[in-house]
Each structure stands twice: as C-alpha cells, then as structure tokens.
Design brief:
There is one protein chain. With 747 residues, this protein is α/β, with parallel strands linked by helices. It folds into three domains: 95-190, no CATH class; 228-448, Anaerobic Ribonucleotide-triphosphate Reductase Large Chain (Alpha-Beta Barrel); 475-733, Anaerobic Ribonucleotide-triphosphate Reductase Large Chain (Alpha-Beta Barrel). Helix content is 46%, strand content 12%. It is built from 30 helices and 20 strands. The strands form seven sheets. It has a seven-stranded mixed β-sheet. The chain has a three-stranded mixed β-sheet with strand order 3-14-15. The chain has a two-stranded antiparallel ribbon with strand order 1-2. A hairpin with a 2-residue loop joins strand 11 (454-461) and strand 12 (464-470). Helix 24 (549-577) packs parallel to helix 27 (602-614).
C-alpha cells in the first residue's frame, strides 16, 4: 500500500472536510475537523485507505438522535473511497468514476461476472445512451448504513473481491436486465423509468433480484413453497428440490400436512411410521449443509396443521430443552389454523388430532383439502365433524387451549411458530377455481395455490431412464416494494406502482428456475408480490400517531389506493401482453374479487368491467414482505413495522453502525413511538384495514414483553384472527437477543 506524506494527507483530508461543509452546511464541523487534524499530526505516515477509514469512523461516531445527519456525511466519505477503489479496478480517473459504462459491461462479461445477454440484447449505441441517464448525484440519497449494505452485499466485485460496479450502475443493470425483452420501440424509455424509480429510492427489488440481476449466476425470485406428498419418493424429491433452490439463493416454505403421523401404518403394517419429525431432520440438515452461494445457511420454514397428530412434537422442535433427537433448531415453523380451532380455544373446548393418512384411507378424502367457505360455516367443519363422529378413526383428544399454550411457549422462547389462518386465506383466494392454499412461505406474506408433484411413470427406453411427473403447484414469490415515505410525499405513487408491476411481471419470463414445476407454476399464475415499506416513516412525516383511529383510517385509504393502482397496472399489461393462463373462472374474471373486498364506486366499477373484458396479467398481485435490509438501503423503516428504537446499532462482522429513525427531527420525534411501547392491538387494527386490500399476506410481527401474561398474548392472537389477518409472523419478545430474518424476502 502506497504511503503518502503528511502534507499530502493533510491536503486530501481538508479537501474531504471542505466537501462535507459544502454538502452539509448545517453540520457542526469544528470538533470533527479538530479530530482529523490531531490524527494527521500523530500519524506521520498515513495511507489513503487509513485516512478514509479514520475519517469515516469519526463521522459515524457523531451520529446521534441530536445530530442524525452525520450519517449522510459518513456516507459521502464512504462513497468517495468507493469511487477511488472502483476507479482503481477499472483504470479510471477517480474524479469521473462513472465513466464508460460500456467498457464496464465488456470487462465484467469477459470476467464472467455479467451475463453476456446484456451485450447481445443491447447495442453499443444503446448502452452509451443509457449511460447518459446515470445520475451520480443520486448517490447522495444514501445513509451510511444504506451505502455500506448496498456496497458490501450487492455491488459486483471481482472474484478477488475488488469492487467494479457503483450504485447507480447496479440500478441501471437491474433496469436493463428486467426490461431487456420489451419492445425495442419503448424499451429505452421503460429502462429510464425503472432507473428513475430505483435511483430515487422510490422502490426496491427483492434481495435475489438486487443481487443477481445482470449477473452470470443466481436467480431472481425470492421464495418458494412446496407441498410434500405422503410417499417416500415425494419426500426425498422435495428435499432435492429444496437443496437445488437453496443453493441458488431461495428461501423455502414447506407444507408437511399430508405426511402421515407417528404411529401410522405403512403398507398395512400398523404403528411403524415415524411421523414428520425425521423428515424435518432431513430438511434441517439440508438447510445447514446447502448454503446460499457461500453467504448464509439455507432458510426453510415448515408448516403443519393444528389437527395433525404430530402437532405436539412439532411445536417443540425449536425449544432449547428436551430430547435433541427431536429438535430442528435451524428450521422455522408455522401452524395452519382453521377457524374451528380458534373457536374451540375461545370456548375452551376439546380438540381432536388425526392422522392424515388414516383419514384418507377410512374416509376417502383429505381433511386438509377443505376450508370453511363462510365465517362459521363450510366444508372443513363438516368434514372435521365427520372425522370426529367416525368410530373407525383413531384420534387424540386434547383441550384446544393446551395446544395454544404450547404455541405461545414456543413463540416466547423462539419467536415461532408463525400463524397461518387457512380459512381466511382461502376465502380470499382469487384463484380458488384452480386449487387450495395450504400454508405460506418463509416470511408469511405469500398465499398462492399449492399441490404436490407426483411420479406418474418411470421406465427404461433405449438405455435411458425416462421419468414422467404430474407437476404440482410449486409456488414462486417475485417481490418488490414501494417506499411509502418517498413515493407518497413526492406524489409519485401511481407512476412507481406501474413501473414495479411491469418489472415484476418481467421477472417471471426472465427467470430460469432450476425446479421445473416451479417454472410451470410461475407461468400459469404469473404471481407477483408488490409490497411496501416505510409505513412508520410516513406516519411520522404526516404527523399521525401510531396508536390512533387516524392511523387506521389512513392505512385503509392508502392501501385501497395502492390496490387500485396495482390492479390497474396489471390490467394495462394484460391489454398489451395477455392475461395469465388461469384467468378463466377466477374471481378476477367473475368480478367476485371486488365484491368480496367491498369495492364500490365509479372507479372500481370501471376497472372491474375492464378486467372482465380484457383480463388481468397477474393472478396474484400484492404481498407485504419484511424487507428490513432493503429498507435500510432506501433509508426508511422496515415493512409495515413500527420503529424498533430511535437509535440502534446494526451489527457487522467486526464493527457496529449506528442507525437513527429516518428524517428524525424535533417535529417527527413525537411520532416515533417504538415497537415495544406500542399497544399491539392498535397494530392489529391497522393491519386489519391493510389486509382487506392485499390479495395475499403480510409479514406482520407482534412485539411483546417477555413478561407478558399468557392471557394477554392469547387475546392478541384472538384479535388478529377475528380481525381477518391471514398470517402473523414472529412474536418478537424483549427476551430475544436475535431473531433470524428471512433475507430472501427483503424487498
């Protein structure tokens, strides 16, 4: 590393201080400059890297609730160093770090880091024109944690770790990749629009898209959901699919409710089945051993019905005590809950547990294939009653409240299981004509039709083994999120939504999913999940208190606007490119989607009629993901969550980064009541209003004290269920030091 003389160090340091003063005239710079001066005096020889590092640390140390804007000063210093590093890799003048976009593409294609399709799809002239759209000034929008997160995790680096790509180039590459198959007449304009939305941080794409778009490896979708059949081949084939997707950066939700319970028969031999826990152990090993591009372990959530005979052992798999042979600490868990169970909990009734294999054999139907079509009435409770009344079926009888206590004990210790209210989900399924939704994904925001894949025939033909499969619905999540604080405040919400829907729809055609039944499902339903983040940020800017009727009303009206614009954008795409293949017979076609939501008025009538005549592009449209890391990049609050603290530290490998509430000021301070101080019933009330407009689910956390009484936590769950929530995500207790996040769904 080249050392520079004190005089040159001093010159560079004061150039940087001058840049800070000109960009941030309100910062009090005196103490910072004194510290820099002392550093130069003490260190007789200092490398440029060391100087940048020390100045960044000095700026970061000053970040506080009183001086939050030091985060932008630290970000600017970090960017200056990033420009220097990138220019060194690319042989550029650091004064013009964004020079020659075309050369960057050429070099990174040569290094096998970029996909060669970028150069095949775009001419040199087009790429040079796109370079003129790049706006380096947008780099100043990043907070320090935002630029560090983007740089360390998403910007393209060489195999040796040298940075090449800069933030605005990453946004442009994403736009170019996702728009590459659009008509050439409008393609450059669409790329310009997409770049505008991404570079202004009006929206973010999910982690896999942000990381992998334009790259020569990886895929673009966030999460997947598989349904495991009750046979050995289905179980192991599913595990193979899980490992394949996990290797490529996907998170998994796995439904095991069809698998027979412990003590069930196999081929007529009674009492020989080991139940679902051994197969969960297999999945746990897969999660640990098949890491995601060397970055982190695989992420898998397993769901089971609350009427399954193995439910007790299932609820204990993440506990820190008991038989370790029955534990799967690296899996997340979710419980699939019918209305009937919640009614039994509330009335303190008994609950009956069955073996799904025995139900199929004795009754000729699968209990999990039914749900209550109306609140308090429907097919599930009728089939369940038949099972209860059949003396030929074995069952376990247990007070419903005892199962719920086990659920709550696990939640307070581990944050899980997640709750999946299956009747609410299926009643609102716009594609019920084509199937059933058994569970959600890793982050509880996806709700789409599911079914297992079966081997139909396997034979030897001309010395080859030919396998014929009946592909099930293997759900794919394609995610992006709108920054509410920025998009609403700048009055660009409809424009951003239209861009986001097109980008997500294009992911479906561009993605090369290595599990073929997932590829087929993706094409049949063309499901997307447009979400939001920055809700608390927006409330603070609007001067609305979280715990207020005003917040609930605003949530209702805002998400109705989001729903309307999302549906309108998908309808517009259908007119251009055609409807999704399963549109015929759906609630979209019949108009019952709008009736179920209670959408009335001239605008809703118009869009309903438009869809009836010209279709809709995407069978599933909206889902609110956790997006905590990408909301950090965009400088806002995560998802629909309340702020965790006014000032906290993001843990990195060997250092901490202070993060303050976004746009923290004397005006917004009073509206940032933090998560554990908020009455969670107010959060449920907001989310009930929001859920009405979201056709899929919402990653909704409950924040509770570790001293919460069981009856109070129970009341929260009952409130969530009665309020029509489809899912709840973590129960975040104050005793939790760390709760692992699903990074795949950070959108």
């Amino acid at each position: 590393m080249t050392l520079i003389e004190t005089e040159n160090t001093s010159t560079l340091a004061w150039q940087l201080c001058k840049k800070l003063r000109s960009n941030f005239p309100d910062l009090i710079m005196e103490e910072f400059e004194e510290k820099v001066d002392r550093l130069i005096q003490v260190k007789t020889q200092l490398s440029e890297d060391q100087l940048y590092h020390q100045m960044i640390l000095s700026a970061v140390e000053r970040v506080s609730t009183e001086e939050p804007h030091w985060t932008y000063a630290a970000a600017l210093l970090y960017l200056e160093n990033l420009y220097r590093s990138s220019s060194r890799s690319r042989g550029l003048d650091p004064a013009n770090p964004y020079d020659s976009f075309f050369d960057l593409l050429n070099e990174l294609v040569e290094k096998k880091l970029y996909n060669p399709r970028l150069l095949e799809k775009y001419s040199r002239e087009e790429i040079q024109q796109l370079e003129t759209f790049l706006d380096p000034a947008k780099d100043k929008l990043f907070t320090y944690i935002g630029i560090v997160t983007l740089s360390e995790r998403y910007l393209t680096k060489s195999h040796e770790g040298r940075v090449y790509e800069l933030p605005q180039e990453r946004f442009m590459i994403i736009a170019m990749t996702l728009m590459m198959d659009e008509d050439k007449d409008q393609r450059l304009n669409l790329i310009k629009e997409a770049y505008w939305a991404l570079s202004n941080l009006y929206m973010t794409v999910a982690t896999p898209t942000l990381a992998n778009a334009g790259k020569s490896y990886g895929q673009l979708s966030s999460c997947f959901i598989d349904t495991v059949g009750d046979d050995l081949r289905s179980i192991f084939d599913s595990n193979t699919d899980v490992s394949t997707l996990s290797k490529n950066g996907g998170g998994l939700g796995i439904y095991l409710g069809k698998v027979r319970s412990r003590g069930s028969d196999i081929k007529g031999f009674k009492g020989v089945s080991s139940g679902v826990i051994p197969w969960m152990k297999q999945l746990n090993n897969t999660a640990v051993s098949v890491d995601q591009l060397g970055q982190r372990q695989g992420a898998i959530a397993v769901y089971l019905d609350v009427w399954h005979k193995d439910i007790h052992s299932f609820l204990d798999v993440r506990l820190n005590n008991g038989d370790e042979r029955q534990r799967t600490h690296d899996l997340f868990t979710g419980v699939c809950i019918p209305d009937l169970f919640m009614e039994a909990v509330e009335r303190r009734d008994d609950w009956y547990l069955f073996d799904p294999h025995e139900v199929r054999k004795v009754k000729g139907f699968s209990l999990e294939d039914f749900y209550d079509e109306e609140k308090g009435n429907g097919s599930f409770r009728e089939k369940y009653r038949q099972c209860v009344e059949d003396p030929g079926l074995s069952r376990k009888t247990v007070p419903a409240i005892e199962i719920f206590k086990r659920i709550m004990i696990s939640q307070l210790e581990t944050g899980t299981p997640f709750m999946f209210y299956r009747d609410s989900v299926n009643r609102q399924n716009a594609n019920g004509h084509k199937g059933m939704i058994y569970c959600s994904n890793l982050c509880t925001e996806i709700a789409q039709n599911m079914s297992p894949t079966f081997i139909e025939e396997e034979k030897i033909e001309d010395g080859r083994i030919i396998t014929y499969k009946q592909p099930g619905d293997f759900v794919v999540c394609n995610l992006a999120s709108i920054s509410l604080a920025k998009a609403v405040q700048h009055k660009v919400l409809p424009r951003v939504i239209e861009i986001a829907v097109r980008l997500l729809d294009n992911v479906i055609d561009l993605n090369n999913i290595p599990v073929l039944q997932a590829q087929l499902t993706n094409e049949r339903y063309r499901g997307i999940g447009l979400g939001t983040f920055g809700w608390h940020h927006l409330l603070a800017l609007q001067g609305i208190k979280w715990e207020s009727d005003e917040a609930a009303e605003y949530c209702d009206s805002l998400y109705e606007e989001i729903a309307f614009n999302t549906i309108k954008a998908s309808n517009k795409l259908a007119k251009e490119k055609g409807s999704y293949p399963y549109f015929q017979g759906s609630d979209w076609e019949s108009g019952s989607y709008f009736e179920k939501k209670g959408y009335v008025g001239p605008l809703w009538d118009e869009i309903r009629d438009e869809i009836a005549s010209s279709g809709i592009r995407n069978g599933y449209l909206m889902a609110v993901a956790p997006n905590s890391s990408t909301s950090l990049i965009a400088g806002s609050t995560a998802s629909i969550d309340p702020l965790f603290r006014l000032l906290y530290s993001e843990e990195k490998k060997d250092y901490k980064i202070p993060v303050t509430a976004p746009d923290l000021s004397t005006e917004t301070f009073w509206y940032y009541k933090t998560a554990y101080l908020i009455d969670q019933h107010w959060s449920i009330r907001q989310n009930s209003r929001r859920q009405r407009h979201i056709d899929q689910g919402i990653s909704f956390n409950l924040y509770v004290s570790n001293t919460i009484k069981a009856k109070d936590l129970l009341l929260l769950h009952l409130d969530a269920w009665k309020s029509g929530l489809k899912t709840t995500y973590y129960v975040r207790s104050t005793s939790d030091s760390v709760i692992e996040e699903c990074e795949n769904c950070h959108s």
